[in-house]
Amino acid sequence: MRKMRGCKVLLGILLTVTQVWSIEIKSLAQAVNEAGRQRMLTQRMLKDYAMIGIGNTFGNPKEDLKKVTEMFEDHLKGLTAFATDPETQKSLEEQRRLWEPIKKMLAEPPTKERAAELQGKLDALLKAANTTTELFAKQTGKKSGEIINISGRQRMLSQRMASLYMLRVWGIDDPKFKEKMNVAMKLFDESLKKLIASDLNTPEISKLLNRVKKNFMFFQIMNRSQSKFIPSLIYEKSNEILKDMNTATGLYAAQKVQ
């Protein structure tokens, strides 16, 4: 009897912890921000996976991968609980379908043999997460919704550029590497120019965007260079851009404007 009561208490504690851990989304602007963050996490997971495969411990990619995997799961639950639009709910169901096999792959030691397969699966998840983000942005009916979407996408692109580079350093043969990198960098550059010109910018946001512009120049130089850069430098610069764009996206999301 005591054991049964003890099990019930333990179950209650576990349920409470789960409920506290699960992110609570309270507005469409926050939903756009968090849905957009999911796009970034797909590429950050790939970057960490490749760093572990290379054997580079800079930034502790093994621990970061664990944290990011848990974050994606948590945010997927939060977005699913918040969504009321049938089309958005359907897109989140698609994310869940794609996510389950990826989660299992990420729990196993990284191998070159599975890296290309993982990249393909994460790219499909990225596409699904992008659809969800755009659906939430559309529901806001505000100009700020579009800007939050674009700003949030920059976070993803910072990690995509880095993950593509890490896979190349690891020796993963991807015939479309150059094409993928050029597309990512072109979109980042065009989006950054659009954000810098936005009338929604505050002095703090403008400062962040200018710092991002300086760090992006590092990637532009890297893409033109024939020599290989040190992976840890790419890792560091991508995280600096991610940090600043994450702050900027949060500041856009906090604005109550049309």
Q: What do these coordinates show?
A:
- This protein has nine helices and no strands.
- The protein is mainly α.
Summary tags:
globular, mainly alpha
Look at the helices and sheets and give the structural class.
mainly alpha
Number of strands: 0
Biggest sheet character? none
Low-pLDDT regions? 1-20
How many helices? The count is 9
| Strand residue percentage | under 5%
Question: How does the overall form come out from the CA principal axes?
Answer: globular
Task: Kindly provide the radius of gyration, computed on alpha-carbon positions and rounded to a whole number of angstroms.
Answer: 19 Å
Ends distance: 60 Å
What do the pLDDT scores average to? 89
Portion of residues within helices: over 70%
Element pattern in H and E:
HHHHHHHHH
